[in-house]
Specification:
With 123 residues, the protein is mainly β. The protein has a single domain, classed as Jelly Rolls (Sandwich). The strands form two sheets. Strands 1, 2, 4, 7 and 9 form a five-stranded antiparallel β-sheet that branches. Strands 3-8-5-6 form a four-stranded antiparallel β-sheet, with no helix packed on it. Strand 5 and strand 6 form a beta hairpin. The two termini are 23 Å apart.
Amino acid sequence: MGNCNEQVGGNFTCCEPDVYVQDKVCNDFTIIAATPVVVYITNVNTNELFATGSITFSSGTGVLLVNFLLGTTILGPTLTLTPGSSASFTVTNFSAVQLTAAGATALTPVIGEFCITPRYELN
């Protein structure tokens, strides 16, 4: 049948197509302490994972830090949000998303929404 890089009679169907799925997860969050909080964790192969998403810092004080982790290692730059702001992201090869709100307390919680659409290959 030839290899997948060869054109066979004008038809490229000799290769098995990759099958990707995607999920969408959205969560409201309320952070009441400066302790980092994991808001998303995956159980799929991180080498085949890529995702897009957004995060909104609706109310609170201080800054909200968003980190993408591979195990315990922080990947790439930290997203920094201020009250009333939001950010979008595209990330790959990660295992968790962590939020840290240094100014958060029970009296002045940091409130927002986190949405992520992970995509990964089914084997």
